[in-house]
Amino acid sequence: MRITLIGYGRMGQAVERVAQARGHTVVGVIRRETPPEERLTLAQQAEVLIDFSHATAVPHHIELALTTQRPLVIGTTGWDSQREQYAQRVREAGGAVLYAPNFSIAVQVFLEQAVALAARLLQLEGWDLAIEEIHHRAKADAPSGTARALAQRLQQTLGKAWSAHLPEQGRLPEDQFHVSAVRVGHEFGTHRLLLDGPYDFIELTHRAKNREGFAYGAVRASEWLRGRKGFFAFNEVLNEILSTGRID
Ligand SMILES: NC(=O)c1ccc[n+]([C@@H]2O[C@H](COP(=O)([O-])OP(=O)(O)OC[C@H]3O[C@@H](n4cnc5c(N)ncnc54)[C@H](OP(=O)(O)O)[C@@H]3O)[C@@H](O)[C@H]2O)c1
User: Fold this and answer.
1) How far is the CA of 159 from the centre of ligand 1 (A)?
2) Is 4 near ligand 1, meaning CB less than 6 Å away?
3) Which CATH class is domain 2-103+211-243?
């Protein structure tokens, strides 16, 4: 498969390594400074576009994919508030876009289990929960897209709102749970669900060992997306993606 990468930072380079190992070819790289005409050419050369760039640029990359009629896999985070608007735009224009705030397959399984565990325990008296995420200093958004996705799912399941902010004075309201972000060094990404009960404390942690796991999920997603139309969320089509090929 011919791939054009949009963004060639830590993740773009990891995608290149994984894609090549799976027999694909990176035919183009679109960087921040790439002029518009060159972007069009680089996109047209590819069968699929994979975006790990910056949130502010995602709408332009969606338009590029629609103009060139190329499927687009988006791993860039921090644009969630515009997601529904662009999902509709993609569907109306007959495009193909697949998005995940976290392309790690293990994280998707972790999220499912975390929600199920919390739902079970929060039915009991005196239980509370919180989410903690830890990432490298250079991460551009907080809380992480994955922490937001988990918080969102827990909010829907438990009927409790999440908050990334603690009041400087006073307490976190009873009907909210806390999502905290830590930025330190070179950490690839840790997500932790904390469940606190009257007699027990449970921590469920996922820790990425490198960036290859995210890249692997994004490449598998791009293989699946070719030839399809619509706006897809990775977690919603994961089983289908996994059934179309073996996990290496
Ligand atoms: N979904 C997932 O599984 C997953 C996993 C890890 C990270 N992420 C997300 O992926 C994104 C990238 O992460 P990263 O660690 O690779 O960041 P990074 O190392 O800072 O790389 C970002 C790259 O995007 C480029 N860029 C910025 N604006 C652009 C534009 N308008 N057009 C083309 N390229 C542009 C930057 O170019 P310059 O070098 O010129 O600045 C840089 O090379 C972030 O949003 C991060 O949160 C997602």
Assistant:
1) 33
2) no
3) alpha beta
